[in-house]
Amino acid sequence: MESTKFFLTVDDYQNDAKNHLEKVAHDYYESGANDEYTLKRNEAAYKKLLIRPRCLQDVSSVDTSIEWFGKIHKFPIGIAPTAFHKMACKDGELSTLKGAADTNSLMICSSWSNTSLEEVAIKGKQMGAQLWFQLYIYKDRSVTEALVSRAEAAGYQAFVLTVDTPILGRRIADMRNGFSLPKILKFANFEGNAAHSYMPQGIKGQSGFMEYVTSQIDPSLDWNTLDWLVRRTSHPVVVKGIIRGDDAKMAIEKGAKGIIVSNHGGRQMDSAPATIEALPEIVKAVGESCQVFLDGGIRNGRDVFKAIALGANGIFIGRPVLWGLSVENKKPLTLNSIIQGAKGVKNIISILQQEFTHTMKLAGCRSIQEIRKCKDLIVREDFYSKL
How many angstroms separate the CA atoms of 324 and 338, rounded? Predict the structure, then answer.
């Protein structure tokens, strides 16, 4: 029987993923920085928020759609950029792409994918998928410049600039494992350039990935970097990794069209706030001047609802997609097809879509607009302590 028949929640996938991944890959996907305080806080913060449902609202029909940069999306749920999908299944990002297309969900392709941006784009056009492209800024600016040109030519619709990684977070699990990509895998977007396409081999106590980032990624990034990208492309630029209102305002002043409230899944600055905690400050700071998205800690449709109610235009999921990829593959990196991994991704997103719709109806909301305009729909759990 198909395993998806027994998986009714995102947690079901998380609990089973470790049975289908090599330990080093599982730890890379699952772990956070340092003591993993922020990693845990991302999820825990949602549990401190309560939904105050409205009754007698006629929810026989609800509209879950929303507009992002002039395009209508059936649900406010997309796929965040995550690296190295081929550690989860043989067809990696192509399986993720099919899962996205099958659920009409936008996918942000990572610079550090195991499948080239061109191959993802070609397949995406065939499947009718919508794609954005995520960027890191390399010390050799011509490397990033080339990625921008290639992504534009391939048809990506927006750029997502990651700004929270001047250096790599101290990821203890990766250091203990001496994490590096399996030798058969590479950074596919840098084919032909050994310095950029292969990760140094790690040793116990030292991550090969950290060595790669230290040697390649530019730690001198400043607001001029965002200026450069906005001038360089006519595509919308979305800034990912902002958790402060003043930084969000500056990003908009520099020309960004969107913000992704993100702490890199708790993998960079440990002791940073949960993204759902940071969201209201950023929404207040930017008002209606840009679109605000969020990632981190989303595990069910109620979490999606809470983020939308607090002002997000949409959310992106990272780890759940990787769990979906891995669970459908009994032997990662061996015989496989695009269809297999895609089934898990499709089911993960479908679960969130169904739960989100269910929550809307129970909360008495018929549209995204109704969720966002009801200011007392979400309260902290201490709201009732005064009673």
Answer: 13
Hey, what's the torsion of the CAs at 336, 343, 264, 288, to 10 degrees?
140
> Does residue 385 fall inside a structural domain?
no
Whole-model pTM: value is: 0.95
pLDDT at 335 > cutoff 50: no
Q: What's the pLDDT tens digit per position in 117-128?
A: 999 999 999 999
Residue 244 CB neighbour total at 10 angstroms? 14
Hey, what are 339's tokens? 């269809």
- The reply to whether 82 sits in an annotated binding site is yes
Residues recognised as catalytic: 264
Residue 329 has pLDDT above 80, yes or no: no
Q: Could you say which DSSP state residue 3 is in?
A: G
Whether the per-residue pLDDT at 3 is higher than 50: the answer is no
Name the domain count of the chain.
1
267 labeled binding residue = yes
Q: Is residue 150 part of an annotated ligand binding site?
A: no
CA dihedral over 241, 247, 248, 252, signed as positive or negative? negative
Full DSSP string of 325-353: HHHT-SSTTSS--HHHHHHHHHHHHHHHH
Residue 1 lies in a domain: no
